[in-house]
Amino acid sequence: MSIKNITGMKRLEELKKDIYRCIHCKACKFAYSGEPSRDGVGEWKGKTNRTFLYEGMVEACPAGIEYGWEAFWNAGKMWIARSILNDDLEFSEEVRDVFMPCITCGQCAAQCESKVRTVDIIESLRAACSESGVPMIERHQYVDKLVKELNNPYGGKAEERFKWAKDAGLEKYIDKKGAKYAYYVGCTASYRQTNIAIATCRIFEKLGIDFTLVNDEVCCGSPFFRIGSVTTAKDLMKKNLENFKDFDMVFFSCAGCYRTFLVDYPKWIEEDELPFKTKHAFEMISELIVKEKIKFKPNKELKGKVVTYHDPCHTGRHFGLDMEQRMIEKSKNLMIDMRKVKQQIEVWYDKPRVILRKLEEDVGIKFVEMYRIKMDSMCCGAGGGVRAGYPDFSLRTSSLRCDEANAVNADILTTECPFCWRNLSDANDLYNHELQVLGILEMINEYDLLEVLEEPTHEDIIAIIGRAI
């Protein structure tokens, strides 16, 4: 499969029209930028002694909140991109250190009425900066070195990637012959949050799905696309495309890996289309609920517990923005019916909520939404290379998200991304939020909630609904 040769600077030049569409209106600073009278839960003082007013427009750019200066908000970064293109500014370590503490959560793009592709611009700035000879920050150099040597950014040995599967009695699924479906586990669930990987496999097993774990799996490349190390990311992408090319379907439990395969990979391959279908595990569970093929068992321990849900940026807002851009690309101008794309985005965001509402109905939990949700959701603070490069800032951002869960009196904070799980869990412990952090599938497995009424057919598994426009 041939790979496109596009430099960061070339990509930045391709985005020039986007950069010049930014009128610095500052809507990108907020969630609910167009809803100043939106009702919410009111004022809340969080664990970092920062008080938020959860109603109306709310500041929502993590870097802007953390650093305060104009350059760290999205509008400032658009000025930097414009200045680079105009040769009014040169890349340097000082310039790098302004646009690197950005989690690339996409909140700014979600608020932008001009539909500026801010995440693409920031990632292109980073790639162009690295290509210009400015070194990556030290922590990013370190993870880049690790992944080149060991095919993962955690420093884990290749032979230990699926140690969790062997320890859990799931060894028979490693390189299983004849399987039509593969489970791409990802580095975080393989080397850190193995609880997520085990829960996903156990659920596949209960559903009777003929899946395998691919022993040659390597890092998806997501961290390296985000920090501007594009050559490293493309090398990893080539390995994964070769390793998974013969499967009908590749499943995911990591939002970042799923986003990378589904959104990033097609941008870098000449064919513009993956050789296999893709699906996150929660999509399948949601679809099987709708088709009435599964339900959940009552559970006394969970009954009455207040459960809230954190939308991962990578399978939330980034998917929504991708849907939006696909519709824009099909249009000859920006005069498009945004009601259609908003409806499609809403269908996508409803998938994990189908599961949570069914858990409310069958199990007895109380599902309550936080104030900032869906396209306006607050980031967990882990992405964009920030957890590795700026861990204290990352955890303070995650604490702000845990504050929001505390504000709705949640007992359990759920998500469907191991990286979000890690950051939320660490902030929960560090700042004493007193929440229980669980993946949705992890909760289903840990409390033995799944009841299979009818095993899914190949057609059930392969069907993808709700995303394509």
Produce a short descriptive summary.
By secondary structure, this protein is an alpha/beta fold. It has helices at residues 8-14, 16-21, 62-67, 74-85, 93-99, 107-111, 118-131, 138-150, 163-167, 187-191, 194-207, 222-227, 230-244, 255-268, 281-290, 317-330, 338-362, 386-389, 391-407, 418-430, 440-446, 458-462; strands spanning 30-31, 42-45, 51-54, 58-59, 181-184, 211-212, 249-252, 277-280, 294-296, 306-309, 366-367, 412-415, 436-439, 450-452. The chain has three domains: 8-131, Orthogonal Bundle (Fumarate Reductase Iron-sulfur Protein, Chain B, domain 2); 138-291 and 454-462, Rossmann fold (3-Layer(aba) Sandwich); 294-452, no CATH class.
Please explain how this structure is put together.
This protein is an alpha/beta fold and 469 residues long. The chain contains 22 helices and 14 strands. The chain folds into 3 domains: 8-131, Fumarate Reductase Iron-sulfur Protein, Chain B, domain 2 (Orthogonal Bundle), CATH 1.10.1060; 138-291 and 454-462, Rossmann fold; 294-452, no CATH class. It has helices at 8-14, 16-21, 62-67, 74-85, 93-99, 107-111, 118-131, 138-150, 163-167, 187-191, 194-207, 222-227, 230-244, 255-268, 281-290, 317-330, 338-362, 386-389, 391-407, 418-430, 440-446, 458-462, and strands at 30-31, 42-45, 51-54, 58-59, 181-184, 211-212, 249-252, 277-280, 294-296, 306-309, 366-367, 412-415, 436-439, 450-452. A 4-stranded parallel β-sheet has the order 6-5-7-8. Strands 11-10-12-13 form a 4-stranded parallel β-sheet, with helices on both faces. α1 packs antiparallel against α7. The protein is globular. The two termini are 25 Å apart.
